[in-house]
Specification:
- This protein is mainly α and 189 residues long.
- Helix content is 81%, strand content 2%.
- It has a single domain (3-183), classed as CDP-alcohol phosphotransferase transmembrane (TM) domain (Four Helix Bundle (Hemerythrin (Met), subunit A)).
- The protein has a two-stranded antiparallel sheet.
- Strand 1 and strand 2 (29-30) form a beta hairpin.
- The longest helix is centred in the first third of the chain and has 27 residues, at 33-59.
- The N and C termini lie far apart (44 Å).
Length: 189
């Protein structure tokens, strides 16, 4: 269990605390006062562990199969949990969150098909941009400061666009994998 893997596990363990802070009622209102700012701090720290674990792993050659599998899973868990909490708090439309989560299922499915064929699909630049914008958007939505309403909405639309672009990019780059899967199913029948 090297440092990058410990950071990944820490990010995953932060999720339940984050969710409780987001949804615990303070004076009858969820995610307000100290809870809001503590939830935001937990989210920011967890998001930064994503930045550092990958860099440390590559720089010091500490890349492991555990890290390759768990790092993207931890990211998805953190962001999707935050988005679901934000739907509960009526800060983001559910349909946008459904698109974002559906993209994660599609890409995870493609990655599982690839692994079965012995291929590892690395994160694309579009996928990385998507993650960064989603995390920034979530941070602004947690903070929920009216002065940033326009910026928060702009970030939401950019994150949605990057979600769709990155999904199309993954599918386009891996279309042969999907074609092979379709062909092998016909052979099995």
């Amino acid at each position: 269990m090297n440092l990058p893997n410990k950071l990944t596990v820490m990010r995953m363990l932060a999720v339940p605390a984050f969710v409780v802070l987001m949804l615990i009622p303070v004076d009858g209102v969820s995610c307000e006062g100290w809870c809001k700012w503590t939830a935001l701090a937990v989210f920011i720290i967890a998001a930064f562990t994503d930045l550092f674990d990958g860099r440390i792993a590559r720089k010091y050659k500490l890349v492991t199969n555990f890290g390759k599998f768990m790092d993207p899973l931890a990211d998805k868990l953190l962001v999707c949990s935050a988005l679901i909490c934000l739907v509960e708090l009526e800060r983001i439309p559910a349909w946008i969150v459904i698109i974002i989560i559906a993209r994660e299922f599609v890409i995870s499915g493609i990655r599982l098909i690839a692994v079965d064929d012995g291929v590892v699909i690395a994160a694309s630049k579009w996928g990385k941009f998507k993650t960064v914008f989603q995390m920034i958007m979530v941070g602004f939505m947690i903070g929920n400061l009216r002065i940033f309403d326009l910026l928060t909405e702009l970030l939401m639309w950019i994150a949605l666009a990057l979600t769709i672009i990155s999904m199309i990019d993954y599918i386009a780059k891996n279309i042969n994998l999907l074609k092979d899967l379709n062909g092998s199913k016909k052979d099995d029948q």
